[in-house]
Every structure is written in C-alpha cells, then in structure tokens.
Amino acid sequence: MDSPVEIPYQSFVKINRTSDTSIYMQIANQLINAIQRGFLPFGTKLPGTRALSQTLEVHRNTIVAVYDELFAQGWVESIPNKGTFIIGKDQDEPLKFKNFESDELDHYPKVTGFSFKTSNILDNPFEHSACEYLFNDGVPDIRLTQIDQHSKIYSAILKRKGHHKMLGHYNHDGSEFFKKNLSRYLNLSRGLPISKNNLLITRSTEMSIYIVSEVLLSQGDTVLVGALSYFSVNMIFQKAGVNIISMPIDEEGIMVEHVREACKKQKIRMLYLTPHHHYPTTVTLSAQRRLELLNLANEFGFIILEDDYDYDFHYDKSPILPLASADTNGMVVYIGSFGKSLAPGFRTGFIVAPENLMAELRKHLGIIDRQGDILMEQVLGEMIAEGEIHRYLKKSVKIYQERRNHFAALLEECLGDLIRFQIPSGGLAIWIEWNVPINLMQLSRNCTQNNLFIPKTLLYQNKNLTAMRLGYGHLDFDEMKNSITILSGTVRAMLE
Fold it and tell me: What sequence ranges are listed for the domain HTH gntR-type (predicted)?
C-alpha cells in the first residue's frame, strides 16, 4: 500500500482563494475527482489532517471539514488506530499510484470512449462573423422591440399569486388562456375558423415541422418541395428518411402542373409550401393555384404542410388568406410563428390541425418539451387580449415598409445595371438575381474582407441561376447604405 507521503497531493489539488466555492469544498471535490479517475486507488490511506494541511498550506480545521465531507458522501471510512481510507473493493494486487500529467484532472475528455452514429445532414448551416455589417435571410430588428414593456407584463404576471401554481407543474399543453386568445387572433387575422383545441404551441417553426414529420412521415415517403426551399426544413425531411422531390417555381409560386404529374407517377405523402412569400424567392402563390392545390390534395390524398413564416409582414395590400382557411377536408396542416416582431425570447411557434391529429402531436411534444413555457404564453395571451400586439404590429410594419422601399431604391441605384429583382409585397427580404457571371462564394469571401458578412445560406448558384436572398429588416437606413455600397464596390472590383 502506498505511503500517504508518496502521493503528490499538491500537484492535483489546486486552491483558488478568490473563488466563491469554499476552500474545503474545492479540496473535497478535487479529491473525489482523483478517486473517480483512478489517481487515488481504492484502499489508499489518506494523510492525517495535520500532515495534509501542511502539504496544502491550509488550516487543519479545513482538512477536518474535507474529511467530514468525504465521509458524508461515502468516499472514505475511518478505522480506529489506523487512519482514513478510501472505500472500495478489496484489491488482489498491491496498490499503485497512477501517474498523470499535472493538468490532467482539470480537463474533460476530448473524445468519447464509445462509438456512435454521425450524420452530416444536421450539420449547422449557420455562420457567424465579426464584420460590422451583415445580411441575413430576413429577420426583425431587435432594436425596435419594446423589451421593457414586455418585461413589465411578464413581471406582473409572475407576481400574481394566482399564477404561482404554474411554476409547480409541467404543462406541455400550454396556457389555455393563450390558446384561446391565439385562436381568436388567427380567426380574425387569417380566416382560420379554429378553436383552442386545434392549436399546439411549440418553441419554433423548426420544432413544429419536426413534430409533424415524426407523426406524419415514415421512411421512404415522398415529399414535394419547391425547387428552391428552406434549408432547415429540408434537413428535417432528410433526417426523417423521406424522398424529396423538387417542384419548379415561377413568378406565381409552385407550378401546379408539375405537382399533378408527380402525383400521377407515384404516391405523394406531403407537399411543403411557403405560399404567402415563398422561401427564398418571396413570390406569392396565386389564388388560382391555391385552389388547384387543395383540389389535388383531395384527389390524390397528400398532406399540404403550409408554413406561414412571415404572415404578419405585408405592406401594399391585404394578405392572401392561408390555404388552411379554405380547407374543408382536413388536408392542410398549418404552422406559423407568433410574436416574430417581438424580442426572440417572446416568440413562439404553433401548429393548427384537426383535433384527431392534434392529440397525437401533443404526445410527441410532451416528450421533447414537457415543461413548456406557460408564463411566457400568458404574457402573449394578455398582449392579444389587451390589443397590444395589434398596436405594436401596426407601428413596426410601417417601419419595415419604409425600410423595404429604401432598400429597393438603394439596390436599384447601386446595382441596377447588374441585378434584377421584384419588390415583394411583404416579408423582410428581397430576392435578387445577377445579370453578370460571378462566383457568389468568392463574392462572399471578398465582402467579408471589406467588413460585410454574407452567409452562404443566402447564396443560390447553379448553371441556370445566380441569386441571393438579402434581408433588410434588421438594417437602418445608414446600415443599408454602407452594406450595399460595400457589396457594389466588391462586385465591381471582381468584374474589372
């Protein structure tokens, strides 16, 4: 058995005297760590309290407290007239102290000791940069949100005694108050004749689509998407093991005749659409094609998954109502987000579907998000009931419309001879197509060198298309001017 003197305790017990953790707990935790990793074998005799206190240069009472903690947690035992020993199984061989590098106990393992499945399907497609200016695919400006006011509502709800019981229960079904108000809101704003029983509250659009995919899709099913579609959704579909077929898109949205031909050739399980403003091209699916798709769904029995990701942002005219508002046969599953113009922490996603499907969807939500966020939902419910969300949207939509017009004018002024685009009726992004041959990945790298970041997820290039989706919602007028000036200057330098 090793003599206590032979073990270099000072080499793996590091005391931080400025830490909020007490010194005796620091020592106890590090000794436990050493035991667990085999550096202090079972059966090892620990030094006496006076000897270890001198070694570690702490008060003897600190070591007494350390040993008391080790004893309380069941790591050591005290044998009268013999000393304190690490508890463990009897050793058949003499105990040997395991050698280690001086900092080995301070680091978590770099790799697992077991094998596991890996997949590049779910690789994170999002990039980050320290550039002063950047484009995105169309997100609201956090600076326009009234965070203080929203926080006050949240704080007031938290203080109400009647709501304290919410904190003690899991509730993945969500706030009944919020669902009741949200169903009314969707009825009035989007023509959806639903009740709270047709709603499932989720954390995001991606969570909504994931749950729907888990319930409605099976390995080998066929899903139709636009020839250009939302990359995150495609990743979810690929993970589900389905076959994805792209349908052509034109200025009126997805081309229905191609959907019909696909249905004649094989069994189609689902059609995924972003009809209000197609992602990424921003075109609106025409009213005639909406009716044709509903008829096709009824004829061939496929599900329409309607993603209305930016319904709230429309400027020039009243928005076209969702396909779900005209669905009488239960063929459409409608997903959307609420509070997108609010701060990220105040946003939520939702699914609208017939009640029989909703019951199954709730089972899956209960597994991945059992606790929910019922207090935040209560806040959003009150914002609807008190008309706060209407007032905020009215104000923010006016600002985003001004930004859209200004952004479009700058594009025409600085890049009009190089690009073509249509001003969208809503949303927070503009789709531009280049009239000149240019490598978009190289353009992105060159812009980064000039302090403008353009993520690769905004770039669309093949032998027939060179295009970009540029979000403007997060930019004020000066930021727009600087960003487009950098983009224009970089492009023209590449074309020289």
Answer: 21-89
| C-alpha 63 chain-centroid distance | 47
pTM above threshold 0.70: yes
Which uninterrupted H or E stretch holds 411?
A: helix 388-415
pLDDT of residue 292: 95
| Segment-wise mean pLDDT, segments of 10 residues, the chain, 496 residues | 63 87 92 83 89 92 94 90 80 52 61 80 74 91 76 72 55 78 91 93 91 95 94 91 95 95 97 93 92 95 94 80 92 90 78 94 86 78 85 89 96 95 93 95 95 94 93 96 97 92
Residue 72 lies in domain: 1-113
Fill in the amino acid letter for 476: D
CA dist 268 and 265 (Å) reads 9
Instruction: Map residue 28 onto helix, strand or coil.
Output: helix
With a CB cutoff of 8 Å and minimum separation 6, the contacts of 20 are: none
CATH of the domain at 30: 1.10.10.10
Q: Are residues 349 and 440 in the same domain?
A: no
The answer to whether 274 and 308 are in contact (CB under 8 A) is yes
Helix 205-216 vs helix 355-368: crossing angle, to nearest 10: 110
- Helices 374-385 and 176-190 sit at what angle, rounded to 10 degrees? 40
**CA dihedral sign, ordered 382, 196, 345, 318:** negative
In the chain, the amino acid numbered 30 is: Q
Q: Looking at the 3D structure of the chain, how many domains does it have?
A: 3
End-to-end CA distance of the chain: 79
Whether residue 316 sits in one domain with residue 215: yes
